[in-house]
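Troubleshooting: if your tokenizer reports a length mismatch, compare your output against this known-good record of 117 residues.
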Amino acid sequence: MKNIYAILLLLGFMASCSSENFITVNVSNNSGQLIKKLRIDVFGKSQNISSLENGESVTLLYRNLSDSHYTLNGELKDGSRIVGDYGYVTHGMDFEATFKIHKGGKVEFSSRSEERR
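Known-good structure output:
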């Protein structure tokens, strides 16, 4: 009987570790100028945005992540930098993050999460 409990515990642990989580990242350019380039890193996975016009938005999707945070590194047309570390990501939860890029490369960040079932 102990072996059955051990096997069930092991299977439960493996299932919890293998569940795929999703992160949706929305980026809006409210800077008044072109975003020349922007790299967003989460748990070692990078996605790049280039030539995002003022008033435009883009949505990125990340999958299979563990505990981490968001790192932004980019540049506006006038050379202003877009940099910083934001929020968190937790394994087993889905997240939706929003980055609004404002004048001078200032970043407005918000996030919400939902537990995976």
